[in-house]
């Protein structure tokens, strides 16, 4: 077996121990009985998974068993992992299975728990075909030192309870879905109507406090979720907030604009997106001249610190469930996407992170994500750790433009509400869910489990 996070240049034969030592990997032999118990699906998942975890010393994020006898783990096996499934493969997440009563999930229908006899037949046939089967693992440790640095980044002294993960069983039924569907409910963060911006500001605003700031300045549209989140955090911390909004003030404020006013934000309007950054700088200079200490938060809090919040969130997710095969989320300014992708890299996960653009073309968003990842490398003092991280963006669901509903996004809002009492916002999550629905219907996600990361914004339904 080998760890799912390994790369092409790490492919080794079980017999080649000198190469193993030269690459500073640790070969671990897992007994046939342990593998047989995993395949047989006998009672006592905790004992079985504990045995596996003990042998690998809980140092890899995911273990993949390959039933190969005295042969090299080859490129075809690596590709099987990357493509999510292969015959004769069982995945184990030791971080979860060694500590939780969770089922060890196989990767093929013929290996499922409801067919243990089939699994034993599969194993016995394999053993009969190969005289001396051995099971060797090459473990590639997760980036634990970097994770340690990540976890030391200051955060606000506010309780941010892990957001729930729920299975979308009725939505799956409506779609005739092959993969199981889950949702990570960042819309349920209690402070300031929640959402991904509150999670990012949990780290970014701590940076502002460390700098001695007394005013937070940021920007967005008139109905910006990020602006509302920034005003919420400022109010909670006893700070002032200045919001630069592109657009015209509403005669009767609604939704986020109403909340901005209730939160006591100083909202200043500009006519275009291009004017926002200069207006923030002008506001900061004005406040400094008055003896204040402003702190500018870029659009969407899409900075290295904002991304760090979502890299940390991946650790939160792994404490709740084993890694999903794919994560689908809305992406725009790139910070949330970059953070989740960084978390997957640091934990050594093969999870696909699929961002659905709410506005810009995929190359533009990908460029921003690369920039944020580069800045996060500097923050974590880990040069190159995210180099080559796969950035996957689908920009085919934008429709007529930012914030303009499509037939697909409208269907997604209604379907999630009626099937799961799950509310999406028209600008971001509705289009991301529309993409997920379309991909499931087209069978474009040939995996077992897909998680939709709900980034909030449902206040927009009342705009």
Low-pLDDT sequence parts:
1-120, 129-141
Strand order of the largest sheet: 6-7-15-12-13-14
CATH hierarchy, class of the largest domain: Alpha Beta
Shape: globular
Number of strands: 15
- Class based on secondary structure composition and strand pairing: alpha/beta
Overall mean pLDDT stands at 79
> Helical region count?
17
Give the oligomer, counting copies of the same chain as homo and different chains as hetero: single chain
What fraction of residues sit in β-strands? Answer: 15-25%
Question: What's this, in brief?
Answer:
41% of the residues lie in helices and 15% in strands. It has 463 residues and is α/β, with parallel strands linked by helices.
Explain what the structure shows.
- The chain is α/β, with parallel strands linked by helices and 463 residues long.
- The protein has three domains: 2-141, no CATH class; 147-192 and 303-462, Rossmann fold; 207-301, Rossmann fold (3-Layer(aba) Sandwich).
- The protein has helices spanning 17-22, 32-40, 45-56, 75-82, 94-97, 116-129, 144-151, 169-175, 196-210, 225-237, 255-262, 276-289, 304-320, 335-346, 362-379, 407-420, 429-441, and strands at residues 2-3, 26-29, 63-66, 89-92, 136-139, 165-167, 180-185, 215-221, 240-246, 266-270, 294-296, 326-331, 352-357, 392-394, 449-454.
- The strands form four sheets. The protein has a six-stranded mixed sheet with strand order 6-7-15-12-13-14, with helices on both faces. A four-stranded parallel sheet has the order 10-9-8-11, with helices on both faces.
- Helix 10 (225-237) links the parallel strand 8 and strand 9 (240-246).
- The radius of gyration is 24 Å and the shape is globular.
- The N and C termini lie far apart (53 Å).
